[in-house]
Amino acid sequence: MTDAIKRCSTRETAACCCVDVGTILDNGDRTASYSQVFPHQDHAEAMLSHLTDKARAVESDPCLIESQFHQTPAGIQLACRFTFSCQAETMIFQLGLR
Fold it and tell me: Which residues form the domain of 74?
């Protein structure tokens, strides 16, 4: 089993299904996006507040939060982007919303 552990490779090892974290998280995707239409402005603002609280709970350095409200025929559309300092925080944020 001399070649059982391959560093920086997504190839499975002989002992388990292990990969180096650096092959999955390369810090290239640090932004999470959210968009939804709400019936009223106050519902959209409440969701933005909820999402902001979730992002602040995850961040190690300040998360850049950009948001916009748009009037649509169906209601108010909330569109926002959360840019974290690292990809792991982005994933934690996204998984926390499930």
Answer: 27-96
Rounded to two decimals, the pTM is: 0.74
- Report yes or no on 4 lying in a domain: no
- How many domains would you assign to the chain? 1
What's the token pair of residue 5?
Answer: 């552990």
C-alpha distance from residue 20 to each of 13, 28, 71, 91 (Å) = 11, 16, 45, 17
pLDDT tens, per residue, the chain with 98 residues = 444 444 455 555 555 666 555 566 677 789 999 999 999 999 999 999 999 999 999 999 999 999 999 999 999 999 999 999 999 999 999 999 88
- 24-63: buried (b, 16+ CB within 10 Å) or exposed (e) per residue? eeeeeebebebeeebeeeeebeebbeebeebbeebbeeeb
